[in-house]
Task: structure prediction
Amino acid sequence: MELAQATQTTASAFGTNAVQTTEPARQLITCTLGDAEYGIDIMAVREIKGWTVTTAIPHAPPWVRGVINLRGIIVPILDLRARFGQGETTPTPMHVVVIIQTGTRTAGLLVDAVSDIIAISPGDIRPVPDVSMDVPESLISGLVPLERGMVALVSLDQLLCFSSDAAILAASNS
Result:
């Protein structure tokens, strides 16, 4: 898959010469949770499938819906809405699961819908404001303002970091 290129002009330290640099654009699949739009790196997406019933896992965090068997691979399904502290999703046949892979981890993200594929340049990404939020800021790696609204970039590495979440959950239950 060929990535689009974004050209950015920067001024030198003395402001006399403009230097052209070409940075590869990032392609994102955008998905929705209610009115909010989230971006997922397209290189991490393995497939998009309709919602199927999961098998529950005892003592799993509340945002882990369960697991599915995807062609012989057991894949945990995460409720992205619940993970972001926005309540649990009641899945319908209209919901979709985005199967992602980062490193050796594979998981499915339960979302309302997949809406678009966008290309952004690194300069388009804005930092997440330092505000008190129900969702740990580390789950969102940046914000991209678009004409149609804001897209929050999902940090897949942080999203799939279960061990620290399990420790936090265990500590809060004791």
Q: What stands out?
A: DSSP finds three helices and twelve strands in the chain.
